[in-house]
## 1
Amino acid sequence: MRRFFSSPVTKTMSSYAAARTAATGKNVWVEFIDLALKYKPANLGQGFPDFAPPTFLKQALARAAMIDSLNQYTRSKGHGRLVQAIAKYYSPLHKKEIDPMNNILVTVGAYGALYCGINSLVDSGDEVVVIEPFFDSYLPCIKAAGGIPKCVPLRPKSKEVLLSADLTLDPDELAAAFSSKTKAVLLNTPNNPTGKVFERKELEMIADLCKKHDAICVSDEVYEYLVYEGEHIRIATLPGMWERTLTIGSAGKAFSVTGWKIGWTIGPAELIAAAHSIMVNCNYTCATPLQEGVALAFEREWEQKGKNDSYFVELPSVLKEKRAEIVKMLNDVGMKPIIPQGGYFILADTAPLNVSFEGEDAYDFQFCRWLTKSKGIAAIPSSAFYSREHSHLAGKCVRFCFGKSESTLQAARARFEEWKKEF
Ligand SMILES: Cc1ncc(COP(=O)(O)O)c(C=O)c1O
């Protein structure tokens, strides 16, 4: 038996940790959230909306909590009313009759969906193609499952990158990343952090490789409702892709309630059953009243579809204005923003500012620390969204979140104005 507290202690406590815990590495959020708590900057760092969620959603949750039975465990794969509502809403979007009982898994946020999906697919030594820059949980999740990430970066089409659409996949580089060992490919459209909305021909290229190498596509589409230019295309709707795609969504991102942590995966019954086998022994089920609340929100969206009252119509139009505001602020101080087609993040090149640092850490990390401490504005280093191998591609870019309340944007504007006076 291991003796934790009696001497002699032969191991440090950390040596009891399983090897897979080392796959997690350093988490960028820990440092930059602590920094924001300490310096109280205008927080354009972490990706959550700090404006009020829709009233109908808060009311739905309050009502759900008053119904006794909704305060107990619900169906493990997903609360009945929610899976019905998701199936109804997404069937036309997937051009397919989605079976609420077998084609949907509700999870603790999209994080949970990614974890269950990846762990249900990846065996030790399997390779997973990951398009980068990527949401930072992808690599630790793949590695903890014993998988080997094969990262393929988006590359600039030309020398100057003005729009997220100027970042693209090199077809040969992508094809070379696939092999007989490839189990899955991880795609994120609209992409965090670039805001790129993948075009049909890019998705076709990924789909063809999946089919050729018999790989599954895990498609993270949490920003599906935040598209300003281009069209959100679900890779699952391309020929031959429904059978091999897990499509991930998030109520946190769709309805601006990131604290609710309700996500879902839509896919073929066998893959959903496998993902559920991971989830059932981890969470067993997700919070019932929250699922009921999200169900009511989807039912409302169904009735308001395409109308001005629809949250999925209102949110992108509000965010498009916020995007214009942040672009102006960044341009005014001399940064070079890369205008995103979707999502609520924007990358900006800080190189034209000529700020120099002496430390050995990556430039963008030092810049973000300096920006928070000296200028009172929080941003996130973009190299955190790259593999170590390709982190140099981040250059001097940092990521700002513009999915923020008017008061946060106003505070940021004031601090940018203050900074401008120094020039
Ligand atoms: C691309 C992407 N995927 C997944 C998530 C996690 O979403 P959730 O909060 O629903 O777990 C995030 C959160 O920022 C994200 O940006």
Note: The chain has two domains: 20-53+311-420, 55-304.
## 2
Amino acid sequence: MSNSAITPILIEPKFVERIWGYVDLRPWVNREPDGRPIGEVWLNGDECVAAGGPYDEMSIAQIFRNYPREMLGDDGSGTQSPLLIKLIFAREKLSVQVHPDDAMAQKYGDPRGKTECWAVLEAQPGAQVAVGLKPGVTVADVERGIQEHTLEEMLNIVAVEKGEMIYVASGTVHAILPGSQLLEVQQNCDLTYRLYDYGRPRELHIEKGLEALRLTTDAGKVAPRELGDRTLLIDKKYFRIERIELSGSMTKTAFDGGIAGKLNYIYVASGAGRLVCGDAGIELKAQRMVLLPALVGEYSIESAEKIEIYRIVDMS
Ligand SMILES: [Zn+2]
């Protein structure tokens, strides 16, 4: 495939049932309820499929397996998207959990651990998340807290507002609490160790969770940085996220902003526009996700009115 033939890929989202989710996601997402509580919308999961274009109906897993160089670039390795991106809608508290780092995940046969971050898309007054343990809490305290149902008191609770970014390094004990809608960007890893679930009848993974947890990490809020034509929300080892508000047109070179040749995803937070690549065009609509392969051809992003997008760059 020549570069000019490598086009952006619009992805069909996948709605995932979770006991802590909402039966009706409206007004955040325009989807007819079917009785199941939906907690997560997977925007680029392995089972999500391409909508239209040359990869139409291929799954994300198939696309990365068949075209790893096109997707990940000449410096890339592996045959899977290194990042998994979801919307999180929490009607109830999510479990108190922890994820392993790369070394622990690899020890148990998985390719990578999970560092994640949350961009706060919406927040009701009083919305909170739990990120890390209070100073002085020990592993023995955590074990006792799990047994005596007092672990919540040991968590560092953080108030969140729309527009904020929370970094959750692997090993950080954390929980998403009700009141916000989050764009979650994470290493593409299935390993979640549930330490505490408020008495809900789901399995806990205490032994591995205690092995994974770190009493202190560099998790927490990340201050935004204005860069002129965009706001840099986070720039870490595995991912970089920028928020761009655009009225008019932006070329690929301008969009890259000096960080070219990497796998990118575009999440449309609000507004509308069009991504034009050669003869092909993709309508950019709110809550949709577009994959920009590392070796994608020239393109431009156009918006006659205004579009607000999150640019997510694979930095692994
Ligand atoms: Zn998590």
Note: The domain at 225-314 is CATH 2.60.120.10 (Jelly Rolls).
